[in-house]
Amino acid sequence: PFYIKEAIWNNAFSYNKRKNKKIYVPNLLEIDSFDNIKLWTEIAFEDYDFNGKLSTNYWLENFYKINWKWKKIYLFDNHNHAFYFWYLARNEWIIWDNNTLIHIDEHADTRDNNKNISKADSKYLQKVFNFTNNVLNVWDYIIPAQKEGIIWKVIQIRNETNLNDYLKIELIEEKNTI
Q1: Could you give the CA distance from residue 59 to residue 26 in angstroms, rounded to a whole number?
Q2: Of 19, 24, 66, whose CA–CA distance to 44 is shortest?
Q3: Which position among 29, 32, 57, 75 has the lowest Cβ density within 10 Å, counted as fewest Cβ atoms?
Q4: What are the DSSP E strand ranges found in the chain?
């Protein structure tokens, strides 16, 4: 685990207005049951809402890897951590390039910060880890994945109507879906 103390990544949100100048990034812990998930008392994300009220979020004590029914499940908090776990999955041959991402969130998370990771650097998980934790944030992690090629298409489910429309589509299980 470590703290981000600079005005980078998710710590850049309202950095100059906040008294707390650091956020916590937990370590990855392998557990055997969902019952072993614990919440934490360290701040993982902090920002002011549209009404000027400070929103402080504590989230998970650890990120978790859970082996469940022959599948690896990774549980983490801030959305942009998905970027790292996509590349971990590609490194472990669980997924390949050109995936369809089913993104379930009321926010698109597709802002383009014009900072990208190269195909060559994406092969090294430490470089992906650094890019995830020092460059990306919760709003801009999908576009770099598309530009690098791990994501091809994005299906946005941003509200109940989108979800109901999507559930009407017959899904074919493919290895190319995240």
Answers
A1: 10
A2: 24
A3: 32
A4: 2-4, 23-25, 28-31, 45-48, 54-57, 63-68, 71-75, 99-104, 151-157
Q: What confidence tens digit (pLDDT) does each residue in 134-163 have? A: 999 999 999 999 999 999 999 899 998 888
C-alpha to C-alpha distance for 67 and 34, rounded to whole angstroms:
10
Distances (CA, A) of 65 to 29, 76, 80, 156, 159: 6, 9, 17, 26, 28
Cut 0.85: pTM above it = yes
pLDDT at 39: 87
What values do phi and psi take at 46, rounded to 5?
Answer: -150, 130
Q: How many CB atoms lie within 10 A of CB 49?
A: 9
Q: Which parts of the chain sit beneath pLDDT 50?
A: none
